[in-house]
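Morning F.,

Quick status update on the modeling queue. The single chain you submitted on Monday has been processed. Sequence for confirmation:
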Amino acid sequence: MDILSLTMLQAQPQTGNSLLGFLPFVIIFFIFWVMIIVPQRRQAKAHAELVSGLQKGDQVVTAGGIIGTVTLVRDDQVEVRSGTSTVVVERSRVTRKINAAGVGPAKQA
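Structure tokens below.
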């Protein structure tokens, strides 16, 4: 056998199920979906519930780190009183509620 015939044998397409070639990609996509996308959606849903349930008197922490009490709730803004000053922030910038003792997240009813 010469080199040309060996190269021709190697160049022959392999017969088999081409769907099996995509199986690792499907498995990787499924793992990616379960580990990344699903928890992110769950977290976004919990944040949307938190923001929609804000009431006057709730103690909150904003994305900027301001800790205070909600004094006024508008459509897309909340007024937060921290110490002696009052700050108006977007509702979506409230990251979490804190309980009355100030330790840990507020208990959900």
